[in-house]
Give the backbone structure.
Amino acid sequence: MMNVNSNELRTSAMYIGYIMLKEIKKQNTNKISIFDISKALSKAGITNSRQLIIGLSFLYSVNIIDFEEAYIWVKK
């Protein structure tokens, strides 16, 4: 059995990526602003910009999202 602290889980790249993808799906649009993602993360209690970068890097590295300037979109 794995013991994971809830704070460690909330700051993991996978959880942050999940919140980002959930917000993109909720908006039901092709592009979403990084500012909208930031608002969604702050509602989830993640206020540090470092976690935003970690989440974006994770989703980009597994080839799920692409981004340009201030917009993010899911690859199809």
Remarks:
- The mean pLDDT is 88.
- Strands lie at 32-33, 65-68, 71-74.
- Helices lie at 6-10, 13-27, 34-43, 49-61.
